[in-house]
# Entry
Amino acid sequence: MVLMLSNSDVDQLLTMKDTIAALDVLYGELGRAEAVTFPRQDLHVPLANEQDDLAAHYLKTMGGASPAFKVAALRFSSDVCTWPLFGNLRRRVKLPVQNGKWLGLILLFSSITGELLAIIQDGYLSRMRVGGTNGLAARHLARKDAARVGIFGSGWQAVTQLTALAEVRDIRHIKVFSPNRENREKFAKDMEALLKIPVQPVDSPNDAAEDVDIIVTATNSRQPFLPARLLSEGVHLSCLQRSEIEMEAYRRCDVLFINLNSPEHNYTSTLFSKREKELNMEVRDHPWTYDKFDWSVYPTLGQLVNGIVPGRIGDDQVTAFINNIGVAAQFAAVGAKVYELAKIKGLGQKLDSEMFLEDVHP
Amino acid sequence: MVLMLSNSDVDQLLTMKDTIAALDVLYGELGRAEAVTFPRQDLHVPLANEQDDLAAHYLKTMGGASPAFKVAALRFSSDVCTWPLFGNLRRRVKLPVQNGKWLGLILLFSSITGELLAIIQDGYLSRMRVGGTNGLAARHLARKDAARVGIFGSGWQAVTQLTALAEVRDIRHIKVFSPNRENREKFAKDMEALLKIPVQPVDSPNDAAEDVDIIVTATNSRQPFLPARLLSEGVHLSCLQRSEIEMEAYRRCDVLFINLNSPEHNYTSTLFSKREKELNMEVRDHPWTYDKFDWSVYPTLGQLVNGIVPGRIGDDQVTAFINNIGVAAQFAAVGAKVYELAKIKGLGQKLDSEMFLEDVHP
# Structure
């Protein structure tokens, strides 16, 4: 029996507590080199399309295995990407595949039998594993008495960043800044209802970073926006992306951990049309471009979780965690937890395994 | 609608003629760097298993895209591998996943819309693409009047090696050698019935290689067995694996093409237990181990198909094609052909696309 789990199933089943617990085990394994994960393999081909010469098909694949959870996961998404104009700016967007919807799945395999256990929609689980990873880092790095949070960004990913922090610290007050007033006000209202913690929208980056114990950046900015002067003594900085903070701010941190330092991509299987390449370069050609930056000098979350590299050693230190790269093994660990819960609660659509099996092997 | 295609569907739909035609288009693209393929990504983890301390889970993934066919393919297999004793020798085997069956699938995506078009069992298609690739090379390299074939090996892969040659040349006589008399006699009988060409089992390697125009090696030998002296003037040598022929025999060839020279594996995501590593080394530590050999000095089938590097220029030359590595883009091109035929013939099980789609994208 293969279990087909939708985003709605994942949403019902998976708590942030369980997510962080699963990631804690996984990062223990990763730090001891007992779990494996492979860099993203992108298949990207420009399309011959007269209507839109910037359209390209983009099949993204990544995989990882967690022996502790006795599973391996393969995650992929298939998108047609293009670059429509928003005002004067071109932005890269993923067009819906069918019926206004997207295609992103996690295949979960048993390491004991090899069988396909589940096919899981990747949206909700992905957001949980990102939030959970930053939450796990905060548990090790933020001051024990950290209670005040300032967050930059009011999008989809910002939600789980806050639920994760509320899981690992006794958060009493949250400030949110994002450029659009309407967005930040709605986000504040929604998060207050969800977390039962006061959430205050603020008008400036300075306001968001002032008098807080934890600063979270949860934007999709490809340009650094957080200057070093906003990092006050004792603060913990939690970044969703490597491109959000200025180089000076990196230097200001006494203790800085990253997610992983392995290659990010395989570029050999990516073809860009000339124009698309130019547009990609505009977006990607900043100092944080993965391959241009020496990530190997920073310790990893796996080393932190295993105590191989010490975390915060004083209340006045500035600590930071940069979620610098996606780690496919997260889908294995958190996917295993979702699968276990789905079986207990009887959720998910059952597919006959037989159709996926063959009586020969090449 | 996602079409689920079994090995039996593929067997009914796909002819060798169509396979070679699809591969011809693909290798045209590969030679012009217009198609993409990524090296195999293996997730391999040893299992904590008291009954069998050599068992490991092995999730193999590879992908490729063919803009000419407007598809991308992701192929994966999930196996539990172990090393049972056969007499005094340990051999690596893939245990069945469930119900005595194995799990290997190809996911085929449209490059135009991004949608998942089909899920195809990989066994039959894989065998066809291997045979077809060697057949395509033979069409370009064997003498036009080549009519006599000597084949080493009588297994599953040997079948499509012969059907492919019969497609590209007017084959009149075939000799087969394999160490087990019963196997070679049965194979000869079966192939004679299938191809309507006389197939003669022979007792020695020398017999198989004598007075033939094409020599095929289709074994799973990890040690070279074909010496240079068996390559007579004008012969075309077609190898299923890089490990089958001696170094001297490589040197004897006037014209030698390989499948592709890209990295074979990603080793960063492979964990071997100590004992398993030793056993792997015994098997793999020969001169043809992919990463120890300089494949970049040989021209590729893509260059041959595009006429970038000339093939045979005289009837007395010894030519060779070594299928040195798997190419995932083959699954895209041949998969697209199978999909097209399945739609025409109404074969395959229809699955609702909706369950694979999500209304968010991470």
